[in-house]
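User: Structure please.
Assistant: Input sequence and predicted structure:
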Amino acid sequence: MANQKKTPISADPASWSPETQLVHGGTLRSQFGETSEALFLTQGFVYKSAEQAEARFKNEDPGFQYSRFGNPTVAMFEERIRLLEGAEVARATATGMAAVTAGILSFLKAGDHIVAARAMFGSCRYIVETLCPRFGIAMTLIDGRDIDNWNAALKPNTRAFFFETPANPTLDLVDIAAVSALAKQHAITTVVDNVFATPLLQRPLAHGADVVVYSATKHIDGQGRCLGGAVLCTEKFLTDHLQDFIRQTGPSLSPFNAWVMLKGLETLPVRVRAQSASAATVADGLAGMKGVTRVIYCGRPDHPQAALARKQMTGGGQMIAFEVAGGKAGAFRLQNALQIIKISNNLGDAKSIITHPATTTHYRIGPEARAELGITDGMLRLSVGLENTDDLLADLDSALSA
């Protein structure tokens, strides 16, 4: 066999595969040449002179000023997730909800109008439905699954579209490309919460979105340790809106949490692949169990939007929604009988986690809003972890039998 000339590896991390980017991307080494990323637990930074301090604050001298504005460990996390997402810039935040708040409120003002898909996490609905109107920002909630609803909700002062896809907890999908194209026709900024899919299974920017937000607390950490968030966008959006908002309001990610998130990113591809494969197996198993009346999983052909899932996602993900007979009482009995799967309102963990949205994450939106979204009293949300799928299925089957 003739020798084939191999293309030399580029020094540009943007050309590396996601797995390599998530191990090496964005690394800044100190003078000691450490293997692991350095943890800079510092509030401030020392300047060589008064002139340098002035230049730093005038953005004429590159470097750090104060950890609320930027920190070397946080900067490594930001650069690593930026590479994975394919964004121009990224800014880390203390929590996922801080990312959502910054992504929306950093550019909207009194007199503006936001349109949002009504199927979303309860706290996200609070931002859109309650907080925005307090600041004079009008809002409209729609069924985001139909592009015609986005078009019908347009007003002359519409400045933002916001949605989750897949949505929490119903796994409703929004056509990112279609909504983003409509937004661009009207100079509207599209903000997408991509937490369920992760940047490995779905890349909203590639489908035309302008801003992507994450709760890094979920899959990015992946082991239930730290809170964190991220906003990814263009340089222009950062300069015009986001940078000053984060700098002045202070939703900054701590250096320690950023260091933990860096470690989480290293194993993200391995975990997401394994958990997605397990979720597909568990979803199929649940569909055949007595007492389960409905299973919703993005990777199953019976998902109401299966074609769209295949179009914009590269995998079904680790999240499953399913309904059991007996309403709230039946859902509670199942949860209380589980031995391996834990009851918790988090997700994206190495441990499998189950929650009852009607009494936890979506309790505060009220029964009418839940009914409108299809969140029944018998619905459960399952985040599949890294356990053996035979054990998980046995646990669910035993709990259903009980």
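The chain has a mean pLDDT of 96.
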